[in-house]
Amino acid sequence: xFTIDTSKPVMVTGATGYxxxxxxxxxxxxxxxxxxxxRNPDDAAKVKHLTEIAEASSGTLxxxxxxxxxxxxxxxxxxGCATVFHTASPFNINVKDPQKDLIEPAxxxxxxxxxxxxxxxxxxxxxxxxxxxxxxxxxxxxANAPSGRLDESVWNTSSSINHNAYSYSKTxxxxxxxxxxxxxxxxKLVVIxxxxxxxxxxxxxxxxxxxxxxxxxxxGSMKTGAPKWGIGVVDVRDLAQAHLAAGFLPQANGxxxxxxxxxxxxxxxxxxxxxxxxxxxxxxRPIPKWLAWLIGPMVGDGVTxxxxxxxxxxxxxxxxxxxxxxxxxxxRPLRTSMEEMFQQMIDSGQLRKx
Length: 354
Prior knowledge:
By secondary structure, the chain is α/β, with parallel strands linked by helices. It is built from 13 helices and ten strands. The protein is globular and about 55 Å long.
């Protein structure tokens, strides 16, 4: 266990986001003062879930206007903070311009935050939300890792702007972070590398790609079958706990793989069948790899034939022992995360009986 230091404010970038919301909730419930830089603090609907959490908690929420790509934009919000959580980064697979929509926000945003930390004497620790995508690009990369499992020593070398651009953006952003961190001695960098994040959101209509994946499992898009696309997953609430541990445990250090389950998209869908299968077209069988290869390009920009070849029917394997031991984590069952996320999507009108 660990104690959240409430003596100084804590800054959380991307505070209205899927993962950040749960981090903010944990901080506020512990009694911390949270500085939340957002694009428009006056957009009451966008920050409603955060203000409601603050009103029910012993902590204090302070909103600031900031632009991820504007240099110096976070100076006011970071002033006086000892701990900074940088979670803001786009997660969208289907984009028109990867350089503009993924790489520039991820890299430039990270550089802006860490360079501001260099200018803010109060900052002692920065926790960066990176991704397992900075460790591997395709599931087949797992086989080339030490002992056939990804660990924190591995870097993604298979992605590019033309193949897995999102993964490429996360790799470049994390490398930029380590470069800045290693050139100074004022603050400590701890990096969180989650696999696919699932579980309920605090806002009504989150925009994370995870919800698009789950929606397809229940709206008929995968009625003919779901691919056995090897993947790791973690519940958003467990991931938030990992962030808090990384922010306040003295021994937290380096990169940390946060991944609870080694599974596939098809196997994830099967966790929904008992509870929802009678009312929603949950996939009943895996789609053959040859068929996934054939129709993949029609599904979306990220489902290329190369991606199908390197990910479908290929097992995801990652060593999560470092974070389990050093951050004191425990993980929810996969079924709990899937069912609660699916139910929330039903309740909010994002899924309807077919």
